[in-house]
Design goal:
Elements: H1 3-31, E1 48-55, H2 56-60, H3 66-70, E2 74-75, E3 79-80, H4 81-85, E4 93-101, E5 110-115, H5 119-132, E6 137-142, E7 145-150, E8 158-161, E9 167-170, H6 172-182, H7 193-202, E10 207-212, H8 215-227, E11 238-246, E12 250-259, H9 262-280, H10 283-287, H11 291-296, E13 298-302, E14 305-313, H12 314-327
Antiparallel strand pairs: 1-4, 1-10, 2-3, 4-5, 5-9, 6-7, 7-8, 8-9, 10-11, 11-12, 12-14, 13-14
Biased composition (Pro residues): 355-383
Biased composition (Low complexity): 343-354
Region (Disordered): 330-400
């Protein structure tokens, strides 16, 4: 074989192999599964003190919690979400995470929502809500996200979203930290070994919350306990805590705390059992149906961990959740609009020489013999009715 012919065949073989490799790679790309949907925790920045997650499909399927997620949501003062926005953004969400940073100003928090996100419709809805409340919506780009905020109320938070999600709600620097975490430029809470430890202790659940104390926070707790004379309290040894709610034929609630030593966890367990027994015997607690549940909570120390567990039937849990919501005012109807004040009638008799009692800085109105009782802690709450002072008699004894 001539050298030139041999070289040509080698080049042809290399070309066939390279061409086949490229075709194979292209075929593999076409066959590869789609990219995984973003997870809510991917956008929670590292250093969060509290992290709570909700599995919305699981909660919607539970008889105990479904009513809260299926109810028509309203925007206070504007009406139903569907009427304002044309759709309900929550209906297509699958996961929500709430985070509170360990080092931040009071009130800082972040919310991440994942699922089928309509980014343009969400931005339009948020802008409409801001305008309806008298604000000025401004939409801007931040990395791969677009954010909307009220320029007339700086520092009150903003919403950011990108095609495919997630949705981010936060304020100022923390929102940008969430965007950095979602885009991979900053660390997220998934790298926190402390959150992982307490999450493993409480287990998986449709709802879960974990709290990790920083060294500075633990030192502050120690100082406060020392000032109160409780420097030896087992609470000084707490590192983290959490709770999870697992749904199934029974609803299992599992709470846990991790301590820096075994003895404080055992002592804390004894204190919690005594508090449980006292609270379970309380008449008000038993009246609303929580006494029997408290009696069933099993509290036990296991090494450097303290666990509290209880199981409820779905029906029992639904009743307790409904009662708790009622006690907290979550299901109270919106107050009816106040009626306009009564118009003065030109034919009505005069209200007295002195006129109505002053309402300004001159102090409370004189009570008189027929006046209402004082409105302090012992008196009834104020009402909307208008109280007309008694008419005075003329000096000559005639009619007023």
């Amino acid at each position: 074989m001539q050298p030139r012919t041999r070289d040509g065949l080698v080049l042809l073989l290399v070309g066939v192999l390279l061409g086949g490799g490229v075709a194979w790679l292209l075929g593999r790309r076409r066959e590869s599964p789609p990219a995984a949907a973003p997870r809510a925790l991917d956008a929670v920045p590292a250093g969060a003190m509290l992290v709570a997650t909700l599995d919305l499909p699981a909660l919607r399927a539970s008889p105990a919690f479904a009513s809260f997620l299926r109810e028509e949501r309203e925007i206070p003062g504007l009406g139903k979400v569907r009427d304002v926005c044309g759709f309900d953004p929550v209906a297509a969400l699958t996961e929500v995470a709430i985070a509170i940073p360990a080092a931040g100003e009071g009130g800082d928090f972040g919310l991440v929502a994942a699922g089928a996100v309509q980014d343009e419709a969400l931005l339009a809805c948020a802008s409409k809500v801001i305008e309806a409340r008298g604000g000025r919506p401004v939409v801007s780009g931040i990395g791969s996200f677009r954010a909307v905020r009220d320029s007339s109320a700086e520092g009150h938070g903003e919403i950011a979203v990108r095609p495919g999600g997630p949705i981010l709600l936060g304020g100022g620097a923390y929102l940008r930290a969430m965007i950095d975490a979602a885009e991979g430029r900053g660390g997220n809470v998934g790298a926190s070994a402390a959150h992982d430890d307490i999450a493993r202790a409480v287990g998986e659940g449709a709802a879960r919350v974990t709290v990790v104390l920083t060294p500075e926070q633990r030192a502050e707790i120690g100082r406060e306990l020392a000032l109160s004379g409780s420097s030896r309290s087992p609470a000084a040894s707490l590192l983290s805590g959490g709770a999870s709610v697992a749904l199934g034929p029974e609803i299992a609630v599992h709470a846990a705390v991790l301590c820096d030593a075994e003895a404080p966890c055992a002592a804390l367990g004894a204190e919690l059992r005594a508090a449980r027994d006292a609270r379970a015997a309380d008449f008000a607690t038993r009246l609303v149906g929580f006494g029997a549940v408290l009696e069933r909570i099993a509290i036990a120390a296991e090494g450097k961990a303290l666990h509290a567990r209880v199981k409820l039937s779905a029906e029992e849990a639904g009743v307790l959740v409904d009662r708790l919501a009622s006690l907290r005012g979550l299901r109270q109807p919106a107050p009816a609009p106040r009626p306009p004040p009564a118009q003065a009638d030109s034919d009505a008799p005069p209200r007295g020489d002195a006129g109505p009692p002053p309402r300004g800085d001159a102090g409370p109105p004189p009570r008189g013999d027929a006046g209402p009782p004082p409105r302090g802690d012992a008196g009834p709450p104020p009402t909307d009715e208008v109280v007309t002072p008694p008419r005075r008699a003329k000096p000559d004894g005639g009619a007023p």
